[in-house]
């Protein structure tokens, strides 16, 4: 099966410049995805250079200029450029090449097989995010072959180390990388989009991630006089830590409806019964009612979208039943909403704990969580294209609980969205970072043209008859 692949690829790749039908691009996408999934870019150590060389081979064969920046042995970023007229600012198609580790013993198929069986494509990275990388690659290939009249540069950026420390994206945006070119961009598309299928295989909604919360992990530390457990010490390190943690546990952080989150709930109103439907239609008003606010606060999923959250996750103290320990510490998984000031949150926590002897240690590196407005040409292009391909399926804004590379680009004035047309069941999405990571061949095929249409609409002149850009009315 695999042996015929290079031959097929050679045939498909051998005709740059010619216009191919949709199905040829779809077949090319599936074949390239299988090959890409066979490349082991597990981080650590990464070896993203292998992924970069794979992309380089495909792009250069199409006559697209490619640069590779090997910033550490075997670790590389790749930037490919399709120049436009410069009338509008560039669009970046960004994807990370690294994947998280996979334990072959727990998988039905070897994690780097790229196997295709019964309509399913298997491999670490199928969901996160090699299939998305292939859709972006195909958009470059097709834009070049079809000679699109680009009004903006199209930049294809493949990075290393997203799953560990963003080393690749930080390098690309640093003085030794491609900052001067990347920072000119108006838009960036990367991972984070979430489009769920219901049990009947129908899309429920297309979620475009416009913002993300920021992990702000804190350590609480106390010290005190150690002693024998037979004679209690009221203000021992551990007693003070327990008291502080209990105050943290009881503390209710404030509810706040960010515009994109408010929109998400409005878009969900049709799917839920009363009284929630009424609440969701105007959440800022609904939470003025204390009873409603309490109900939503106690709903784990809803609550996490409306406030800064704190989970007590690690507690360390003591080693022997009859010894009162002299130190104690705890770790809190804090997630801040976009736009929040970490110093203000620290001050809030200090006043909640109300004990100056409890030290609160903030994380060594923290990136302020941020969001992009959905009021943009790119967002409207996504809505138009999805309405054509999937009439009646709502497009909504989502907020992620963790960070993607988008967080690095938004402070530069770039509207960064997590967007993909790929559709997955919740069982499939759970295989990202899990066992048996896989994706349906059908959704890969169908998404090739959808993604390309979005790129085409936002990178060329507005199509005739398209509504002029205007702020959203709802
Ligand atoms: Zn990812």
List keywords for this structure.
single chain; 474 residues; alpha+beta; Aminopeptidase; Alpha-Beta Plaits; 2 domains; six-stranded mixed β-sheet; five-stranded antiparallel β-sheet; 17 helices; 19 strands; globular; disordered N terminus; disordered C terminus; binds zinc ion
Task: Write structural notes for this entry.
This protein has 17 helices and 19 strands. It is α+β, with helices and mostly antiparallel strands and 474 residues long. α2 crosses α4 and α4 crosses α17. The protein has helices at 5-13, 22-37, 48-61, 130-145, 167-172, 179-182, 237-250, 259-268, 276-281, 283-286, 290-297, 300-306, 342-353, 377-389, 406-409, 426-429, 441-459; strands at residues 65-72, 75-82, 91-96, 116-117, 120-122, 154-159, 187-190, 194-197, 203-212, 214-215, 218-223, 227-228, 309-317, 323-324, 327-336, 359-361, 395-400, 415-418, 438-440. The strands form 5 sheets. The chain has a 6-stranded mixed sheet. Strands 10, 11, 13, 15 and 16 form a 5-stranded antiparallel sheet that branches. The protein folds into 2 domains: 2-212 and 369-459, Aminopeptidase (3-Layer(aba) Sandwich); 214-361, 2-Layer Sandwich (Alpha-Beta Plaits), CATH 3.30.70.360. Bound molecules: zinc ion. Residues 96, 128-129, 162, 191 line the site of zinc ion (ZN).
CATH topology of the largest domain: Aminopeptidase
How many domain modules?
2
Strand content: 15-25%
**Separation of the first and last Cα atoms:** 52 Å
In this entry the ligands are: zinc ion
Mean pLDDT: 93
Give the CATH class of the largest domain. Answer: Alpha Beta
State the total count of DSSP E strands: 19
**Helix-strand makeup class:** alpha+beta
């Amino acid at each position: 099966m695999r042996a015929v692949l290079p031959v097929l690829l050679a045939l498909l790749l051998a005709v740059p410049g010619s216009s191919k039908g949709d199905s040829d691009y779809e077949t090319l996408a599936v074949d390239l995805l299988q090959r890409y999934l066979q490349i082991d870019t597990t981080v650590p150590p990464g070896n993203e250079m292998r992924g970069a060389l794979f992309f380089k081979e495909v792009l250069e064969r199409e006559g697209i200029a490619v640069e590779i920046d090997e910033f550490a042995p075997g670790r590389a970023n790749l930037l490919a450029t399709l120049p436009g007229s410069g009338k509008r600012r560039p669009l970046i198609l960004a994807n990370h090449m690294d994947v998280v580790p996979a334990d072959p013993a727990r998988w039905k198929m070897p994690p780097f097989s790229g196997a295709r069986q019964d309509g399913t494509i298997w491999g670490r990275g199928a969901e996160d995010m090699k299939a998305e990388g292939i859709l972006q690659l195909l958009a470059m290939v097709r834009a070049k072959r079809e000679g699109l009249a680009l009004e903006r540069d199209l930049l294809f950026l493949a990075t290393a180390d997203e799953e560990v420390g963003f080393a690749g994206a930080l390098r690309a945006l640093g003085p030794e990388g491609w900052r001067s070119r990347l920072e000119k961009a108006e838009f960036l598309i990367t991972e984070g989009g979430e489009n769920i299928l219901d049990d009947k295989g129908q899309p429920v909604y297309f979620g475009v991630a416009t913002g993300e919360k920021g992990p702000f992990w804190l350590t609480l530390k106390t010290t005190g006089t150690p002693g024998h457990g037979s004679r209690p010490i009221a203000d021992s390190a551990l007693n003070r830590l327990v008291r502080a943690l209990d105050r943290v546990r009881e503390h209710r952080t404030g509810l706040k409806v960010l515009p994109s989150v408010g929109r998400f709930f409005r878009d969900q109103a049709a799917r839920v019964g009363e009284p929630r439907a009424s609440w969701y239609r105007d959440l800022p008003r609904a939470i003025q009612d204390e009873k409603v606010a309490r109900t939503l606060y106690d709903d784990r999923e809803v609550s996490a979208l409306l406030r800064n959250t704190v989970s007590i996750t690690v507690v360390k103290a003591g080693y022997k039943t009859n010894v009162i320990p002299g130190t104690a510490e705890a770790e809190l998984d804090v997630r801040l909403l976009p736009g929040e000031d970490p110093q203000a949150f620290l001050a809030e926590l200090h006043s909640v704990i109300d004990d100056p002897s409890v030290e609160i240690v903030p994380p060594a590196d923290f990136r302020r969580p941020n969001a992009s407005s959905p009021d943009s040409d790119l967002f409207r292009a996504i809505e138009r294209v999805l309405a054509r391909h999937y009439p009646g399926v709502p497009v909504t804004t989502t907020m992620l609980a963790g960070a993607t590379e988008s967080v690095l680009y938004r402070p530069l004035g770039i509207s960064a969205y997590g967007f993909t047309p790929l559709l997955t069941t919740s069982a499939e999405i759970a295989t990202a970072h899990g066992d048996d990571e896989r994706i349906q061949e059908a959704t890969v095929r169908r998404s090739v043209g959808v993604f390309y249409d979005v790129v085409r609409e936002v990178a060329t002149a507005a199509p005739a008859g398209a509504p002029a850009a205007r702020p959203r009315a709802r």
